[in-house]
Structures are given as C-alpha cells and as structure tokens.
Design brief:
This protein is an all-alpha fold and 293 residues long. Helix content is 72%, strand content 0%. It is built from 14 helices and no strands. Helix 5 packs parallel to helix 14 and helix 12 packs antiparallel against helix 14. The two termini are 16 Å apart.
Amino acid sequence: MLGLRLIALALACVAAPALAHGGHSGPPGWTLDPLLTAPLLLPLLVYLIGWRRLSARASVPVRPGLFLAGWLVLALSLTSPLHQAGEMSFTMHMIEHELIMLVSTLLLASSSSGAVLAWGLPRPLRHALGGSWKAPLQSLWRRLTEPVTATALQGAVMWVWHAPLLFDAALDSFSWHIAQHACFLLSSLLFWWAMLHPRRGPAGYGTSAACLFATSLIGGALGALMSLSSSPWYADYAALGMTGIGLDPVDDQRLAGLIMWIPGGLVHGAAALALFYKWLRASEGGGNALPVH
C-alpha cells in the first residue's frame, strides 16, 4: 500500500539528529555518540524485524540488499571521520551531503522497503496504517511523490538551505542543523521514489527523465555559482583561514561547488538517460516494459 511507504520517511526522520554537527577540535575521528547511533540503528532494527516477519509469510523472499546498502552509506557518512571533517572543510561537508542525497537515498528509494518497515512496527500501529490512516496517508504520499512536485520540492530545499543566512545558522545551531539535514534527507527520498516508481505507464518514464535532467541543471547552477565565486559564502568556513584539507576558504568552496556541479550532474544525467531508454523501450513495446525498482 502506498501509505505504508511513508514509514520509510518517518523512520528517516528519526535519524535526523544524527545529521547535526557538534563542536569538534583536533583530527577528525569516528562519531559514535548514542544521540547519533541510536537513531541510526532504530530504522535498521525495525527493518530487520519486518524482514524476518514478512519472509516467513511471503511467497517471494524479501531482498534486503538495496536497503542495507543505502543504510550503510548513510551510517558511514554520519559516523566516519568524514562527518567531523565537514566541520573543518566545506568540501568534506559537501561530500557528506552528496553521499546522502545521491547514493544513500537512491538506494533506499530503490529498495521498495515500505512494507518491510511496516511489518517491523508494533501490531497496533501496523493495523492503524492499514486501516483508519490508510486513505489520508495514501493521499499525502501521492501528492508528495508526483514527479514535478518532488523535483520542485528538492530543488527548493537545496537552494534555500544553501543561502548564506540559513547555512550559517545551521552551522551555528544544533536545532537548525537538524532541520537542514532532515530536509535534505526527506526531500531526496521523495525525489528518488518519484523518479524510480512512475505511475502513468510509459509516459511516466519520460516525465522522470525530464525531471532528472531539470534537477541536474538546478543543482549544477548552484554548484557553478559556488565554484565561480571569488569570496566565501559562509562565515564559519571563512573564519577558519585555512581549512582542514589545506585550502583557503575560497578554494575550498570552489572545490565543494565543483563536487555539487559535476558528479551531481553526472548522477542525475545518467539516471535521466537510463529512464529515457526505458521510456523508449516501453513505447516501442506497447507499455510492457518492466517497472524500475
């Protein structure tokens, strides 16, 4: 059921506190604070419980590879030395963001794990999701995962949170950083789900391809502005003088912008071409192509 897929987003929200930076000095190390690891482990535990329960009942075995790979990328992004390195370099921070928004959420959205997560919940909550909550959740899900809506939402989140005023607020405030990274995580989950699960037959693949191409331009334009700027945008990084990777703040920002611009554009462009190819095959085959999973 479509409403059950909201469970994946709700559990991702639980992990949002793990995405905020705390104060750190010295060489970057692993971040294993319970405030970070506990929210990360909760969705994994729910998934594993649901996997065990559903595998015992379903005729087709649950295949957890994509979900576990996406969860692992997310966990390593947030707990490995990369996370603390992001406090000393905008480039490292950008790599963390790209791993979350381009790799982890793509894998999680591809895993179609909503039903498995729902089966991992306590029975009363699971029954409510399939009963009185079903219609409103299903309606909300369909609205949020309409391709153009999801594309616009992610694009707006990306641009608004990279505005200097809000980005500096996120670097200075624990609560603002939670809000920023939760928005990145949830908007990219919605985006990738909308792209990979078209609803309108063959035409859906074409719409997804167009939205992915548009996203490559939206993110590329923001990355280009960063990389071509002659002054640092963010006060906290500018105050460092020399970043943790041996670059001054301007060059560090330029490298971060290039990472958003080029690798990010390549991922979205490659996905657009793959879905465009599926659209062509579906059109030639009378709409009998296999769905994207």
